[in-house]
Specification:
With about 140 residues, this protein is mainly beta. The chain has 1 helix and 12 strands. The structure holds dTDP-4-keto-6-deoxyglucose (T46).
Length: about 140
């Protein structure tokens, strides 16, 4: 499975906590884009796509949501509910985002600029893509 939950290094003292992420140092890619997701609703799921090449780190800055991650062979679920955990998702991973808490805010660091052509939004196409990818190894 091309994902992992990363413990982000906290600089903390009696004033509070601070986390800093530097591209190619704390995270395994150069950051080309940052976006955030907010005003979500518990019964409205998001995602349902994979990326051909893009890598991302997702942090729940506030609130919680569940990620369903699927590599075409198995499915696993991960809860994001802390601002000191980063979910790394590599290429060719189907993701579904569910059960948003009210007030959930996700910040996403991406390895590339937005390009709709780079998305796979059809699950059968995703399965075909990962099958072709592994047969070319
Ligand atoms: C992902 C998960 C975690 C843009 O114009 N620029 C952007 O950088 C992004 C990310 C989206 N958009 C447009 C495309 C759609 O018209 O914003 C709209 C909503 O995007 P989408 O339906 O893809 O949102 P999610 O929450 O399903 O997925 C997003 C990211 O697109 C995706 O890369 O991994 O968050």
């Amino acid at each position: 499975m091309n994902y992992k939950l990363i413990d982000l290094k906290i600089h903390g003292d009696n004033r509070g906590k601070l986390i800093s992420l530097e591209g190619n140092r704390d995270i395994p890619f150069e950051i080309k884009r940052v976006y955030w997701i907010f005003d979500t609703l518990p019964d409205l799921d998001r995602g349902f796509h994979a990326h051909k090449n893009m890598e991302q780190i997702i942090v729940a800055m506030d609130g919680a949501c569940q990620f369903v991650l699927d590599d075409g062979k198995k499915r696993e679920t991960v809860w994001l509910n802390r601002p000191d955990k980063g979910l790394y998702i590599g290429k060719n991973m189907w993701r579904e985002m569910k059960h948003f808490s009210y007030g959930c805010k996700l910040m996403v660091l991406a390895s590339d600029y937005y390009d709709e052509k780079e998305y796979i939004r059809n699950y059968q196409e995703f399965l075909d893509e990962v099958k072709n990818d592994s047969s070319s190894l």
